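Hi both,

Apologies for the delay on this - the queue was longer than expected. I finally got the adenosine-5'-triphosphate-bound model through. Below you'll find the protein sequence and the ligand SMILES exactly as submitted, and right after that the structure tokens for the full complex including the ligand.
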Amino acid sequence: MIELSGVTKVFNPGRAGEVTAVAAADLTVAAGEFVSLIGPSGCGKSTLLRLIADLVPPSSGTVTVAGKPAARARRDRDYGMVFQKAGLFDWRTVRRNVELPLELRGTGRSERHARAAEMLELVGLSEFASHYPAQLSGGMQQRVSIARALADAPPLLLMDEPFGALDEMTRERLQGELLRICAATGTTVVFVTHSIDEAVFLSGRVAVMSARPGRITDVIDVDLGERTEAVRQAPEYFGYVTAVRQALRGPAAAVPEQAGPAESAPAVRAEK
Ligand SMILES: Nc1ncnc2c1ncn2[C@@H]1O[C@H](COP(=O)(O)OP(=O)(O)OP(=O)(O)O)[C@@H](O)[C@H]1O
């Protein structure tokens, strides 16, 4: 679904304020996978997501999405995006917010209505279709944003800290809902987060980035089976959390005495 090959992004090259945000990133994401990007603040996670979305061009390297250059995938609307702020249009009802990508595609009225109703049911907001965003809680707004991103059934969902501004309970509930929706739709997800717990709970793989210039230093396979709430208490889950934490700290942190529950922590695979 996604292939990043030697992708580097330098902002303001040759000028004051030159920043290498992403350096030589290689990453392959298969269809139906859930991959998180995690790393210290400013390491280039959002930039990597924006490169996949073709919102910024790479300085070098290639980005392929759905088997085509990223720019083509953007034009074909092969992905939906969800950000930390729901970014809904205040003057549109919930239903009309969800219909927006379909309107842009020129989908007819009745099909738009039907699809929006289906999406709102998926995120549990059918009763709120006629409400305006300001009448909803932050978590509900974020669910509308997810419904909107999925409205025209993109094969790929790009999410940039979508639950970052929510309280812990809401965040955990939405994590469960997101996994349920992805399982129902088969959507591939690339998910940027600061939270190790969140990355481990959601992902099949966690890509760990180093401090700027952001490199993908490790990719950790997370094999936890079906993500029920009980998984959050499982020793294997804590093992993976420890493995990601160690990868974030770098090789020096992988000292057995510090490992604790990481005795069950899985091996970390370097991917350049
Ligand atoms: N449009 C831009 N112009 C210039 N520099 C930029 C631009 N966008 C990002 N940067 C720089 O690139 C680096 C990486 O930023 P980015 O937002 O990708 O990091 P991040 O890992 O997502 O950070 P955070 O976790 O704090 O959100 C930062 O130093 C940032 O200042």
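Main takeaway for now: The longest strand covers residues 19-29.

I'll put the files on the shared drive as well.

H.
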